[in-house]
Amino acid sequence: MIVGALNDLQAEGLHHYRDTLLYDAYKVCVAAGDGNNAMLWLRKAYDAAVVVVGEHHPVVRNLTERINAGIEGPAHFEGWIPLRPPPQ
């Protein structure tokens, strides 16, 4: 379902929610014990988050720490990027 949603966003040329969906895919892989794919999804979530909020946002810094720490540790952070309406 996550991959389908990502494909739909790409088909529409949208970036909104892409980072969140990629992060959800990371959490699903962690829960399934698939560390290799979890890290791949996490790196994609990082790249998408940088596009949305920039590399200095606290959530992006947390993703950087998670990537550097590897798969050990908690599978998620408190919260995610605060949702804002798309620019008008």
Q: What attributes characterize this protein structure?
A:
single chain, 88 residues, mainly alpha, Serine Threonine Protein Phosphatase 5, Tetratricopeptide repeat, 4 helices
Structure description:
With 88 residues, the protein is an all-alpha fold. The chain has a single domain, classed as Serine Threonine Protein Phosphatase 5, Tetratricopeptide repeat (Alpha Horseshoe), CATH 1.25.40. 65% of the residues lie in helices and 0% in strands. It is built from four helices and no strands. It has helices spanning 2-12, 18-32, 35-53, 58-69. The radius of gyration is 13 Å and the shape is flat. The model is unreliable at 74-83 (pLDDT under 50).
Question: What does this entry show, briefly?
Answer:
This protein is mainly α and 88 residues long. The chain contains 4 helices and no strands.
Alpha carbon gyration radius: 13 Å
CATH class: Mainly Alpha
- What share of residues is helical? 55-70%
Low-confidence stretches: 74-83
- Quick one: overall form? flat
Q: What is the CA-CA span between the terminal residues?
A: 29 Å
Structural class: mainly alpha
Q: How many helical stretches?
A: 4
What's the structural domain tally?
1
CATH topology descriptor:
Serine Threonine Protein Phosphatase 5, Tetratricopeptide repeat
